[in-house]
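Regression test case RT-17, inverse folding.

Input:
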């Protein structure tokens, strides 16, 4: 199958959306499918206000349409609600072509956290954007419930996977982390206001708190919490070593739809403590972590979990299964009644 993937989130951005899309692309190509990625690196772009790592591409709908036509796509998937997604949506509707979308992030909550704008205003845009799609791909039942509560249907499950060749209990630990006073309490992810990192850093619990990742709040938080170790971003084997070196991964976000770092940590044998939010409530169970409104209490319980059980649990999440769900949800292109953009 020839699949056109339109996304505003792509390398060199570092986030869960990019990691999901690059992993799916790699898996699908290994299965013999061909993918065209229409991403910001193809066009002139501007930095997103307050989030300069994200580039807002400047592209006409007709330009995106020419790329997709030249590729002779069998299916079109619009992954994000940004400028490229918007342009692709407009072109598909104008041409009477079917397409699918995905709800990767709690975008209304992100915008509200960063700007103070009423999230319901953003939900109006989200409803309008996704309404014409043949299917909206979602990662968990909790995300389904959120979308249905805002009037969206035609939801299809698209789970996530973990690279078990990289993230496993086999391999080295990080000597700089293991040298710290234990227990080692780890956070991995964007260091930004919407990730609620302060809830982790404020948790009243003994041990050393380690933050792996980068983002606009890193400098401020490093100054406010001098006892925490801010190690910057890590990738691949270095990230896996950090997971193996930790006694628990703390996941304080309330705005993630899944949380890939949770299953990566579990694959390395590290239990997870999280707040009750979409993502953790569907991904975790009591054998491999703890969910609690009091994150410190959740960390204490998670520290008692068996590391071998964590690794076995994570092995259920594969990119092969994720790719199968993605393929099953695609809508083959065919002429249909065009809807007003």
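Golden output:
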């Amino acid at each position: 199958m020839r699949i056109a993937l339109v996304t505003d989130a792509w390398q060199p951005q570092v986030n869960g959306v990019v990691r999901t899309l690059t992993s799916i692309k790699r898996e699908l190509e290994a299965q013999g499918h061909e993918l065209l990625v229409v991403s910001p690196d193809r066009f002139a772009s501007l930095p997103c206000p307050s989030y300069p790592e994200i580039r807002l591409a400047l592209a006409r709908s007709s330009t995106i349409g020419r790329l997709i036509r030249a590729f002779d796509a069998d299916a079109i998937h619009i992954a994000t609600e940004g400028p490229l997604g918007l342009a692709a949506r407009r072109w598909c509707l104008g041409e009477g072509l079917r397409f699918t979308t995905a709800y990767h992030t709690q975008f209304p909550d992100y915008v509200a956290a960063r700007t103070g704008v009423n999230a319901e205003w953003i939900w109006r845009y989200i409803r309008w954007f996704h309404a014409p799609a043949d299917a909206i791909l979602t990662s968990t039942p909790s995300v389904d419930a959120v979308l249905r509560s805002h009037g969206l249907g035609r939801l299809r499950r698209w789970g996530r996977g973990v690279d078990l060749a990289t993230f496993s209990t086999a391999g080295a630990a990080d000597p700089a982390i293991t040298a710290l006073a234990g227990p080692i309490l780890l956070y991995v992810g964007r260091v930004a206001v919407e990730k609620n990192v302060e809830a982790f850093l404020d948790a009243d619990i003994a041990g050393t708190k380690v933050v792996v990742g980068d983002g606009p709040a890193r400098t401020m938080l490093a100054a406010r919490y001098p006892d925490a170790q801010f190690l910057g971003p890590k990738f691949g084997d270095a990230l896996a070593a950090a997971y193996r070196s930790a006694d628990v991964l703390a996941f304080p976000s309330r705005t993630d739809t899944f949380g890939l770092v949770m299953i990566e940590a579990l694959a390395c044998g590290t239990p997870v403590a999280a707040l009750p939010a979409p993502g953790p409530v569907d991904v975790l169970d009591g054998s491999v972590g703890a969910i609690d409104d009091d994150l410190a209490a959740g960390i204490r319980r998670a520290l008692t979990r068996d590391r071998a059980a964590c690794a076995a649990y994570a092995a259920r999440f594969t990119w092969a299964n994720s790719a199968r769900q993605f393929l099953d949800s695609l809508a083959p292109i065919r002429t249909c009644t065009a809807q007003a953009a």
